[in-house]
Amino acid sequence: MIAGLLTGALAALEVEVSAATIRKWVQQGHLRPAGKRGRAQLFRLEDVFAAERLTRRGAGRGGAGGVRV
What distances in angstroms separate CA 62 from CA 23, 66, 67, 68, one per listed residue? Predict the structure, then answer.
């Protein structure tokens, strides 16, 4: 593996989301691969954490999950 880069599966484990969520963040433009090894996309951990902060901050707006009593 390229030093400092993680596969999507390992990145997902670090931020406690599914690998599908990592792929979704890429599709939505929240996360960009830093490289490739074969067919696998590789990510910088700091980029994964930034994407998580960005998407979790947006998840708190409205919706049933943000209801306070």
Answer: 24, 6, 8, 11
